[in-house]
Specification:
With about 375 residues, the chain is an alpha+beta fold. It has 13 helices and 17 strands. The protein has a four-stranded mixed sheet. The longest helix has 20 residues. The N and C termini lie far apart (about 50 Å).
Length: about 375
């Protein structure tokens, strides 16, 4: 039996480019190979946006050694064919076309996870893993996600959002809008993940600088109130029509920490006062909260997943006030780093099972969508 060809797309013009490489190779390509059912086809997008495909791109040492630039200099970028499915075409004297049965995006952040790639896959009419284009757009826009979920009475901290261009044009007008919020505040780029560009602001004199940092990375900025007596939890979810949550997970940080890129990836998750006891060294699984809070957190995450139309996989981040026992929606990650495989593993789902289930969910959604009518015949053109 022929193995399904799964195109694993990673890299791209994103601040999370390097994290994407690790997710693709360690958490997707290797488990797909181990399953024995799939043939992963690595598709790497470099930082300038050129697409490449070669079996050697599955080797993490090519990137960690710094040899990737020299390797790509000897390669020719691939071309894409979008008619009747997705094909990658490797140039040469005899161009080679490879038709992909499924695409598995591993592109974190902008130019990928934000819905751009999903639109391409929809046009190509190829099954793809994870959230579809509309839900990816909503999930990656922190402001839109809060607006939509708030309209369905899902609680979230008070916030203000604005365009970076508006801040540049009239800084004081934006500062006046933010004045209705109570300090401390968090200032964030709207579209970025991995906690890049986030600043915690405790007093007004630091606000403008924090906004400038966020605006350096994004064209939209969100400012939101911090939750008092904070407990952060995160909930990985998988599924289409009947989503299922893994464990509610609790990052090990104290109230003064910001769970930023350095804390997540460069220091083994060792925030101030944390203990390396979690599956990735920075969390407790399951979260150390009482049963009622645990179940309410799980249900709120499932509600957010449903309201934003998520399918395939996503991770919902929540904030808890330990004193009032209030649970708030924070943000959504439509492509969790490393698929949050450590959490699913603890919940009883191996890496191989996880990627296999995600491929099956992609195929099921694509088959379901095939039965929808998107075109119809008319006599409209006959009048011209």
């Amino acid at each position: 039996m022929n193995k399904l060809k799964v195109g694993v797309v990673f890299g791209s013009r994103s601040t999370e480019h390097d994290v994407s490489i690790v997710t693709a190779i360690a958490s997707i390509i290797k488990p797909l190979q181990l399953s024995g059912e799939y043939e992963p086809v690595p598709i790497y997008i470099d930082k300038s946006g050129r697409w490449y495909s070669d079996p050697k791109l599955k080797d993490i040492s090519l990137y960690s050694s710094g040899q990737i630039s020299d390797f790509l200099a000897r390669q020719k970028p691939i071309q894409l064919s979008l008619g009747g499915g997705l094909k990658i075409i490797k140039p040469g004297l005899k161009p080679k076309a490879i038709k992909l049965d499924v695409v598995f995006p591993a592109t974190h952040g902008t130019h990928g996870e934000d819905g751009e790639l999903m639109g391409l896959f929809e046009l190509a009419d190829v099954p793809y893993v994870g959230c579809d284009m509309p839900s990816s757009v909503l999930a990656m826009d922190k402001a839109l996600a809060k607006i939509v979920t708030s309209s369905q009475n899902i609680p979230t901290p008070e916030f203000v959002w604005f365009y970076a261009a508006d801040f540049a044009a009239d800084t004081q007008a934006v500062v006046k809008r933010v004045a209705k919020l109570h300090y401390p505040l968090f200032v964030k780029p709207v579209h970025l993940g991995s906690s890049i560009g986030i600043t915690k602001v405790s007093q007004k004199k630091d606000l403008i600088n924090a906004i400038e940092v966020a605006a350096h990375y994004d064209n939209k900025v969100i400012v939101e109130e911090a939750v008092a007596n904070l407990i952060e939890v995160t909930v990985p979810i998988i599924g289409n029509d009947k989503p299922v949550a893994a464990y509610v997970e609790q990052p090990l940080l104290n109230g003064d920490d910001v769970f930023d890129f350095d804390t997540k990836y460069m220091r083994g998750g060792k925030g101030k006062g944390s203990k390396q006891t979690g599956a990735q060294g920075y969390s407790t699984i399951p979260a150390n909260i009482d049963r009622d809070l645990y179940h309410r957190s799980e249900q709120l995450a499932l509600d957010v997943y449903a309201e934003l139309g998520c399918t395939g996989i996503a991770r919902i981040d929540l904030l808890i006030d330990a004193k009032t026992k209030s649970v708030y929606f924070n943000e959504v990650n439509p492509l969790p780093g490393s698929l949050y495989a450590h959490n699913w593993r603890k919940a009883g789902k191996s890496g191989v099972q996880l990627v296999s289930e995600l491929v099956e969910l992609a195929l099921a959604r694509h088959e379901q969508n095939r039965h929808k009518t998107t075109v119809f015949d008319t006599n409209y053109l006959k009048q011209y």
